Amino acid sequence: MTDAVTASALGRVINRPVARRRRAAEPCELCGDPLPAEHAHLLEERKDLVLCACRACALLFEPGEAGPGEAGPGRFRLVPHRRVRLTGPPPSELGVPVGLAFFVRRSDGTVVAHYPSPMGATRWEVDPAAWERLTSRYEELRSMRTAVEGFLVAIVRGLDERWLLPIDDCHRLVALVRQEWTGMSGGQLLWDRIAAFFAELDR
Asked: Which of 63, 85, 103, 185 has the CB geometry, 3.0–4.6 Å to 151, for a possible disulfide?
């Protein structure tokens, strides 16, 4: 993949609005049908890849009567829509030495911390006992859905943000950091855009 193609793909992820609006001419990434302005996302879990889906395809993976919630060789999961602003805790309670990270529970029960960086997302497993202590105090984290939701924490550069978010929002932040990072500390433009990212969530 060329640098130009990579930059183009990252740009599309970064500029994808929170409301999931895209041009109707773009196709569903499963069946190829044109997408409406607002549409669903699916996570292909094995590749950690978020796909845009039309309503008909999304229904195939909706938990409950409409579908199994996951299926197929790629273990597709429907990405939920809820966004919940939380209070506490700091990343240090989970042994994370950085102020910007998100946490995802995997299908095997482990919890992985992701640190957005200029090279993408650096990952490491969270101590199970530390996660258990945390979820015993925060009910919202106990309800976090496997693979498709993340606990995002930003306590850096004047930010004090903690959110339970769909995984596609976490991917947008990773793409933003990767594309906009300059110099040793990221550059002021990057931190302004990260602040705008959280302001958009709050609206």
From this structure: 103
Q: Give the integer Cα–Cα distance in Å for 77 and 42.
A: 5
Sign for the CA dihedral angle at 177, 182, 183, 189 comes to negative
List the structure tokens of 178. 């990767």
In terms of phi and psi (left: phi > 0; alpha: psi -120 to 50; beta: otherwise), the region of 88 is: left
Each of the 203 residues of the chain gets a pLDDT tens digit; together they read 444 444 444 455 455 554 444 444 689 999 999 998 889 999 998 888 999 999 999 998 887 543 444 444 457 899 999 999 998 776 677 777 788 999 999 989 999 999 999 988 889 899 999 899 888 888 889 999 999 999 999 998 999 999 999 999 999 999 999 999 999 889 999 999 999 999 999 77
* Whole-prediction pTM: 0.79
Token look-up 């903690």 returns: 162
Of 62, 167, 63, the residue nearest 105 (C-alpha): 167
Structure tokens at 130: 């530390």
Q: Of 48, 84, 47, 45, which is closest to residue 61 (Cα–Cα)?
A: 45
- Per residue in 148-168, is it b (16+ CB within 10 Å) or e — as a string? bbbbbbbbbeeeebbbbbbbb
